[in-house]
Amino acid sequence: MEHSKHIETQAIHAGRINDEQFGSLATPLYQTSTFMFDNAQQGADRFAGDAEGYIYSRLGNPTTRQLEMRVATLEKMEDAAATATGMGAVSGALLANLQCGDHMIASKAIYGCSYALISHMLTRFGIEVSFVDMTEPSNIESYVQSNTKLIFLETPVNPNLVVFDLEAIGAMAKKHKLISVVDNTFLTPVLQQPGKYGIDIVVHSATKYLNGHGDVVAGIICGTSEMINNIKMTVLKDIGATMSPHDAWLIIRGIKTLPVRMERHCKNAQAIAEFLEGSPYVDKVHYPGLKSHEGNRFIGTQMQAAGGIISFELNTDLEGGAEFINRMQLFSIAVSLGDAESLIQHPASMTHSPYTQEERLDAGISDSLIRISVGLENSDDLIADLKQSLEKVQVLDNSLLPTKSQQVA
Ligand code: PLP
């Protein structure tokens, strides 16, 4: 569309399929499993790829197609494939591109089920894996072998918010002809577009910010038309983790407000991260929006802003951390992220429990880490909720706490 240059406009209009029959403004929902052919020859031609047209919703659906075109536009990539879940997207991108005997490199710290897929499942099918610290791009290069085919990472990392240099990693991947796959769930294309740095495939858990309302599990894979076609015609067609048209319809609706939601998530998260950093009850805050964070140098270049996820460690023991979580009132104790509601969880016992404790510590995910997904509520209310629970924390080091007279002041 000619005037659709900005992401706020694209989020509402890109990939729009006009309803010529009735002129429906909202995307029509084609809630159908199959499509009728005019005659046997037309069916045969569609199966042979000699005629355009839908066949069966596992192979493609007009509502789902509109979502794919919209997300591909937002990510500035040629095409996209919608999947049943975020894990459907991660597994689709990896399974379509790897085979027995190949080697892949993955970041040590990634979402727990992505770690389980790569470490426990792909290795069962003869794929060799190196889990690598990606903070130094030159360190990654030393793991490249003659059979290395693919590199997989998230930035910022779930759950400890470490940021990697996409430009350097994209260039390194090109140099060694590796397929690069980046999970962009945390920032969304509104804040970061990995394709700009030569990343080949971008995956999302659309369950999170893309949908944004906590009522769907879904995923999406973006890449070149050739790669997406390959993923659709192999993994999605034959393994079958395709998205339901109803979920696609909900996500299309959610994406219309993605840019405004991300702005508010970032604003709220920045205020909360600054509050937590100033609290004597908190040992360390991991949020790239803070000047003290290693990844802060990438803001304004690789990433437009720091997003809505914060993790932190309290000045207490594990039991004190659990009690802190239990006292929260506005923050719901739940995994997932990117919803209107603020959520709080404990990665070591929840989202990152597929790691052993040793693997987790080696990946820089401490047992005391707490992750919050900052929602769209008023940040003063969220801070008040954190404050009431923090003030009851049994601290390990009370020399950091304010004295009675400082508290009154
Ligand atoms: N990638 C990241 C970064 C995630 O946080 C998650 C889920 O939390 C996934 C992928 C998997 O997504 P889904 O739960 O939609 O399968």
Describe this structure in a few short sentences:
This protein is an alpha/beta fold and 409 residues long. It has helices at residues 7-13, 40-48, 62-74, 86-95, 112-121, 137-141, 166-175, 188-191, 225-239, 245-255, 258-277, 318-326, 357-362, 379-390, 404-408; strands spanning 79-83, 103-107, 128-132, 148-154, 179-183, 201-205, 219-223, 282-286, 309-314, 332-333, 343-345, 369-373.
Compile the SSE list and pairings.
Elements: H1 7-13, H2 40-48, H3 62-74, E1 79-83, H4 86-95, E2 103-107, H5 112-121, E3 128-132, H6 137-141, E4 148-154, H7 166-175, E5 179-183, H8 188-191, E6 201-205, E7 219-223, H9 225-239, H10 245-255, H11 258-277, E8 282-286, E9 309-314, H12 318-326, E10 332-333, E11 343-345, H13 357-362, E12 369-373, H14 379-390, H15 404-408
Parallel strand pairs: 2-3, 2-4, 4-5, 5-6, 10-11
Antiparallel strand pairs: 1-7, 6-7, 8-9, 9-12, 11-12
The protein binds pyridoxal-5'-phosphate.
Helix content: 25-40%
Structural class: alpha/beta
> How much of the polypeptide forms β-strand, as a percent range?
5-15%
Q: Look at the structure and give the CATH class of the largest domain.
A: Alpha Beta
- Architecture of the largest domain, CATH level 2? 3-Layer(aba) Sandwich
Rg value: 22 Å
Average pLDDT, all residues:
96
CATH topology term of the largest domain:
Aspartate Aminotransferase, domain 2
